[in-house]
Amino acid sequence: MQIAVTQLVNGFVLGVLLFLMSAGLSLIFGLMNVVNVAHGSFFMLGAFFAFAFGELCGSFWLGLALGWIPAVAMGFAMERLFIRKLYHRPHLDQVLLTFGFTFVFSDVVRMIWGPEIRNIPVPELLAGAVEVFGIIVPKYRLFLIVFGGLIAVLLWLFLDRSRVGAMVRAGVDDAPTAAGLGINVHLLFGSIYALGVGLAALGGAAAGPVLGVYMGIDGEILIPAFIVVVIGGMGSLRGAFVASMLVGIIDTLGKAYFPDLALFAIYLLMVLVLLTRPHGLFGVGRT
Amino acid sequence: MNINSSFPASARGRQLAASLILFALAAVPLAGDYFTSLVAEVLVFAIFAMSLDLIVGYTGLMSFGHAAFFGVSAYAVTMLGVHAGISGWWGMLTGIGLSAVFALIIGFFCVRVSGIPFLMLTMAFSQLLYSVAVKWRTMTGGTDGLPGFVRPSFFGWSLDDRSVLYWLISAGFVFTWWCLRQLIDSPLGSTMIGVRENEQRMRAIGYPVQRIKLISFVIAGTFAGLGGALYAFFNAFVSADILHWVLSGDAVLMVILGGACTITGSVIGAGIFLMLKHVISSHTDYWMIWVGVLFIACVMFLRQGVWGLVLERGPRWLRSDR
Amino acid sequence: MSLLLRTEKLCRSFGNLVVTRDVDLQVSRGERHALIGPNGAGKTSLVNQLGGQLNPSSGRILFKERDIAGLKAEAICRLGIARTFQKNNLFRGLSVRENVRLAVQAHRGQPYQALRSIQADRALWERSDQLLTQIGLVSGLDRRASELSYGEQRQLEIAIALASEPELLLLDEPTSGMSPAETDQMIELVRSLSSSLALLMIEHDMKVVFSLADRVTVLHYGEVLASGTPAEIQSSARVREVYLGGGH
Question: What is the pTM assigned to this prediction?
Answer without folding.
Answer: 0.90
